[in-house]
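Quick note —
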Amino acid sequence: MEFESDWVLRYTAENWPLVRADIERVLPRTGPHARWLNGPAWYHIGDDCIDPATKKGPKRSRPMFCLLAAECLGVPLKDALPFAAATELAHNYLICHDDVMDGDISRRDLPALWVKLGIDHEKRKGDYQRAIGRGLRLGDVGIANGINVGDYLMAKSFEALTSSHLSAEKKAALCNILATTLVKTGEGQALDVNLRADADFSVDRYFELATLKTGYYLIFGVVGSALLANLDRSSIDTLWKLGGNVGVAFQMLDDVIDLTSGKGRVGKNGRPELGNDIREGKPSALFAKVLDCATRPEKMK
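Predicted structure written out below.
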């Protein structure tokens, strides 16, 4: 297992610079939008590759899935890179909005993007962290900027495809995969937000939520490479189904990690925050199983 882990880290270290260069093609570090958009976007992406010694840093899973699938299917690297870049941009759009929606103040042991943007803007107005402690305020500049940078990253994910060297037919097909993924993930997130503390939540409903919220978003890089390799419709449909199954398993593991390590979230005391999903009433696998075993009066407590 250690060997496998090291191999993944080496593969990522070797290939992330190629993906990063393709992202820079549509998200330059300098220019008129560097201060409020491109710079914050790169801060959120986390521009340092995983350190093989410490194993810290962004995982870059989705673009690596895309490149590995392309390699297995005989797709030239230069043809796979635009979609690999799009998957990383789309991933960062989704987690940027997720941090705002969940009120998470840290990511990768650093201030979450919306918090950092608020701190940078509000330094002259006092202790911004203390203001957060009093509750999130509608229209707060950090939240507004966080949402806007997330939207910008989503748009850039499509631009990574539309501005690439690929044929118009391939561009359109890959944009459709990206759009399908974002639509399904949005539907899953709607369930995640609106079914919180719902007494009628069930295991079946959880499977639906996890398939939508995580499944498409986990496998779409592989689906993109399959399309570039000209796999038939049946094979691509099978990959989507695989993503749904793996997505449910991934989400269940994520629910357990929330109770054991806090998923990297750090509280105001500097310690990992455990059990955030329970405090927020999020519809987790554990919550669904408890409700399936509970009586109606117990569910309403």
